[in-house]
Amino acid sequence: MSVSGATAQQAATFGGSDALGSLYDRQNRMFTELVNERSGGALTVNFIEGEQLGSDVQVIEQTMAGAVQFYGDDLSWYANWVKDYAILGWGFTFHSPDHMQRFFDSDAYKAMSDRLIKDQGVRILAQAPIQSRMTFSNKAISSAADFDGLKMRVPEIKTYLELWEALGARPTRLAWGEVFLGLKTGVVEAAEGPVSAAYAAKFHEAAPFVVRTDHILTATHILVGEAFYQSLSPELQQVVTDAAKQATQWAREQAQKETEDMISKMAAEGAQVSEIELGPVREKAVAAVTRMEDAGAWSKGLWQSVQDLAD
Asked: Which end of the chain, N or C, is less packed with Cβ atoms under 10 Å?
């Protein structure tokens, strides 16, 4: 859909928070270009790449406050405001991209996204499963026992911290842009993330032991401030919604294509890529589910309802 015959009327800022060239970065640039092309001059989006506007949480807060209009990155950040999003950051919860997509199509997920609109004034235009998160360490990891005491970087999401504590590590919060230096200087010994984003941030150069833990299936998304969204004409609302769906779907397809390519590139550049027996790691994550629900990390029964959607 496009809007024709219009003159420039509205401008918007898309705040980035990820490394240039990462999958998130490319998705967000695609969205920007699609909207600018299809709006016929009625809406001009300016994409601010990298962390020029701040960390993920800072840019999300700017979007909630109306200073930024669009944002796109990891969907699990919203656990900071709507607790049920924490389920996206718990290890070994989703078994495949199709499993996660079934969750996105469920009433439980709709209630979560509606809560963001009502309580925080932001609307998720589209979301999609992308890549699994892998572990990057500056020392070899050959078994689940090697996570014991490991100084692991985690994002500013409480569930990630709880997960790595359950797996035996010593989690430390660092902003994404600080991880490379943290690994180089020993502030942290390991970090984890989706492979395209981690490759763009050069994690493998600072922590060359790369382990295919695949502990979390990452979801991407594109968000808009609700007040700004409501200020748009119905035609422009459709333009930004369609562009978000196209860009996130592209990211899903691209993630599948480039995961192995990124791993091969890291290996070619000196990383040692390996796999470990994940059974003991998975067991620790599952064993902690009841404790997490009792502590109110997410609604009781949500984890099981997600499992019921599996193949």
From this structure: C
